[in-house]
Amino acid sequence: MALAFTSTPHHLALLLVLLLTVLSPLCFAKCHVDDEAGLLAFKSGITRDPSGMLSSWIPGTDCCSWSGLTCISNDRVTDLFLSGDTTNPNSFLTGTISPSLFIKARQLSRIFIENTNITGTLPKDIFNLPRLQFLTIRNNKLSGPLRIDISPKSDRFQSLELDGNQFTGSIPNSISQFTHLLGLYLNDNKFSGGIPYSFRQFRNMTYLRLQNNQLSGGIPNFFKSLVLRDFDISYNKLSGGIPPSFSFLAPELQFFRASHNALTGRIPDYLRNFQTLDELDLSYNRLSGPIPTTKFPVESFIGNDRLCGFPLPPCKK
Ligand SMILES: *[C@@H]1O[C@H](CO)[C@@H](O)[C@H](O)[C@H]1NC(C)=O
Ligand SMILES: *[C@@H]1O[C@H](CO)[C@@H](O)[C@H](O)[C@H]1NC(C)=O
């Protein structure tokens, strides 16, 4: 018997065939045909890819194994991760984002596309994905208005990061339909118009970054039910005062940056109650009057001609 098993070519061939029969559903498993179609549509919207970020995206192969993609537990693509290497000048993608991606790859839940310099608009179908959880398309060159005229399907949408693009127009009120958001990063774009009052609905949001846009109007008096920890509105064109309900942020707020705007009025006395505040920047505004007792350095207050008292020079009697 032992001899019979010592490999004649026939036995080996038989073993191989058996092995392949058992393993083939694994070896040749393929991702869902809709996912493949959506991803290939995305690839065809990309006209240049000099570093080969998408070179493994080949029709007829399992798209779960393509670079940048993850399928969790079945044949559906759940994560898309494309990150340009900022130290490599050839690491970019020229082209636009095909809307077909989000119409076909319906199970996508985490989308990260960073530092790739993709242009065009953000297809609104992205907001209609039923399992959307994290959407990050940052440091690209997306432009045009941000359109969200769709009723959201996902109740676990946690984070929207579109910072470092070239979006114009106003921030749509409809963003606040995503009431579960914990973080919203729209900074470093060209958004204009006001900060939507509807943001008062973001009950659990901790990060709200709107700096480096062209936002105007006042800071809405909408903080009563908010628990922001990090709030940045610096480098905009905001005017008016710091509203009364801002005091409700006292228990949680750690970072508040509002420099380089046109804010007027006094710094409210209640700022003393912000025990957890680690960073405050009110510099380069038009604030006036005495500064309430503060632990913050002069840099937090400079550039406000009519502000006085420690750490600035004393107020004149
Ligand atoms: C992407 O765009 C930025 C801003 O225009 C530019 O500085 C950078 O060189 C571009 N990166 C690549 C890899 O083309
Ligand atoms: C906020 O978080 C709490 C606790 O996790 C949760 O019960 C509630 O539904 C959340 N609210 C929103 C609007 O996401």
UniProtKB/TrEMBL annotation:
Subcellular location: Cell envelope
The protein's name: Leucine-rich repeat-containing N-terminal plant-type domain-containing protein
UniProt-listed InterPro entries: Leu-rich_rpt (IPR001611), LRR_dom_sf (IPR032675), LRR_N_plant-typ (IPR013210), PGIP (IPR051848)
Record has Membrane as a keyword: no
Signal peptide: 1-29
Keywords assigned by UniProt, alphabetized: Leucine-rich repeat, Repeat, Signal
Domain of life assignment: Eukaryota
Domain Leucine-rich repeat-containing N-terminal plant-type: 34-71
Pfam families named among the record's database cross-references: LRR_1 (PF00560), LRR_8 (PF13855), LRRNT_2 (PF08263)
Membership in a protein family: Belongs to the polygalacturonase-inhibiting protein family.
Originating organism: Aquilegia coerulea
The UniProt record lists the keyword Repeat: yes
PANTHER family (UniProt xref): POLYGALACTURONASE INHIBITOR 1 (PTHR48059), RECEPTOR-LIKE PROTEIN KINASE 5 (PTHR48059:SF19)
